[in-house]
Design a protein that fits this description.
By secondary structure, the chain is of the alpha/beta class. The chain is built from five helices and 16 strands. β3, α1 and β4 form a beta-alpha-beta unit. This is Acid phosphatase.
């Protein structure tokens, strides 16, 4: 695996903090270059429940049949909250024991449960994400080199990974600069826009725990959980995603424990949205009515995709209690 830095600079944000934030463009090449990549995508998997183990077995079956080169973890890697030190047995029990046998690395991002402060899922402790960064230095299968980073998939795709937890936390982040409008938020936002607009790869993917669009329980960015404050309802998440609409081809998110696929929408033309947050349990309920090509709210499951320079093939799998995968929907996206 190649890790490097290509850009270091200073950005100064606005209120609530004007302290400068050092921006490091962290780049990884998680697997050797090839003409085609096969990825398995899981989100909200870290429940420790039987459903998590069943989905892990189903992923193994799909990877044996169709092949897998790389995994993606979309956050909420642990419930109710993330480990507080790198030697926590949770890393072994809820990651390595379940997915290590697959033999390939996972691009990981944090979710709101990983950054819990007062109660599980409040999203107010960025130190939780930093424990998971430290774990990436001791387990090469867990790829999380920074809070926001990019991964190159040869000449086929570029993957941009961001940390959405501080931007839709139920409580204000313990670090003022990481609250919406702070200097850390400005740094991540500027980095994402620059990398999305400058990408020359045939495909550009964005990984962010919270979804832009969702018909499931938490709802859409800007209206999460029908909560009253701009931060809680995800106004900053919505504006961050919309700033790169059309510059990224697919947004992959979790947060809602459901499987959903949205074609490009009028509010975000040119960008598809995949919600794949059912790898630990499928327990959501339909709340919204945005037109979706596919949605499953009750069964656990995951997403598999094959990408080459001309096509992205998406497959959504549901999983029963025995770990048997069922192909529920597939969609090809072409340029």
């Amino acid at each position: 695996m190649l890790r490097g830095t290509a850009l270091t600079g200073l950005l100064v944000g606005c209120a609530p903090s004007r302290a400068p934030v050092t921006v490091q463009d962290t780049v990884v090449e998680p697997v050797p270059p090839r003409a085609e990549y096969r990825l398995v995508v899981m989100g909200d998997q870290g429940t420790g429940r039987p459903e998590q183990r069943a989905v892990a077995r189903a992923m193994q079956a799909v990877c044996r049949e169709w092949g897998c080169d790389l995994g993606v973890g979309l956050g909420d890697n642990f419930y109710p909250s993330g480990p507080d030190h790198v030697d926590s047995p949770l890393f072994r029990e809820r990651f390595e024991n379940l997915y290590g046998g697959l033999g390939f690395p996972f691009l990981m991002i944090p979710g709101n449960h990983d950054e819990s402060l007062v109660w599980g899922g409040d999203g107010a402790n960025p130190g939780g994400a930093e424990v998971q960064l430290a774990y990436s230095r001791v387990n090469s299968r867990w790829v999380m080199p920074d809070r926001f980073y990019r991964a190159r998939l040869g000449k086929v795709a570029e993957v941009l990974a961001v940390d959405m937890a501080p931007l839709a936390a139920y409580l204000p982040s313990r670090r003022p600069q990481e609250r919406p409008g702070g200097s850390w938020d400005a740094a991540q936002r500027a980095w994402l826009k620059q990398k999305a607009t400058s990408s020359v790869a045939p495909w550009t993917f964005l990984l962010g725990h919270h979804p832009l669009f969702s018909n499931a329980r938490h709802g859409e960015a800007g209206a999460y959980d029908r909560l009253p404050t701009a931060q809680q309802r995800g106004d900053a998440v919505r504006s961050l995603y919309r700033s790169v609409c059309g510059d990224v081809d697919v947004i992959f998110s979790g947060h809602d424990h459901a499987l959903q696929l949205f074609a490009p929408q009028p509010e975000c033309p040119g960008t598809w949205q995949v919600v794949s947050g059912a790898a630990g349990q499928g327990e959501s309920a339909q709340r919204g009515h945005r037109p979706a090509l596919f949605q499953e709210f009750h069964q656990p499951g995951f997403t598999w995709l094959r990408v080459n320079e001309s096509e992205v093939k998406l497959r959504f799998y549901t999983v029963d209690g025995n770990g048997t995968p069922t192909l529920a929907f597939e969609q090809a996206i072409t340029k």
